[in-house]
UniProtKB/TrEMBL annotation:
It comes from Paenibacillus cisolokensis. Residues 12-158 form the CMP/dCMP-type deaminase domain. Belongs to the cytidine and deoxycytidylate deaminase family. Keywords: Hydrolase, Metal-binding, Zinc. SUPFAM superfamilies: Cytidine deaminase-like. Its cofactor is Zn(2+). This is CMP/dCMP-type deaminase domain-containing protein.
Amino acid sequence: MATGLQDASRKDWDTYFMDIAYMVSTRSRCPRRHVGAVLVQGKKLLGTAYNGAPMGVPDCSEAGCMIAESYELAIVDGKEEMVKKQRCIRTIHAEQNLLLFTDRIDREGSTVYVTDEPCWTCANMLANSGIREVVFHRAYPKDSAKVNELMKQKGIVFRCLETYEPPGQAGMNVIS
């Protein structure tokens, strides 16, 4: 008999899909950061992806990270400062893999749940992908201001699940 009351033990949709994104991230072999992403249309899961080397190519755990360094002018504590950015160029990001392995028609009007706030490159790709919303958990401060502005310009809902707690079996220490 339905009473209209929600079962207290039942997860809300944001938690449910973010839990899936975190579990997907456990497939990553990146020693710096495990990232998972899921594509959702309504309440239907359409695709999953995680970060890693291209299929059939040695990954970072086998061949080591390929770190590229760059410098960017940023405002730190109210002052302009050159900030060093490091990124692994061996790895295809979870959002990029999600876009590679899903169809544009499925992405139109959909939501992407991703464990980490997208970097600038992924944000640009997501902005042109047809999605209407990005939901993330862990902040990525290196690109946050630019990414937030881009999402606002594109009219894409961009939400951080600040009070979310990942499933225990999906945990990892993140190297910034």
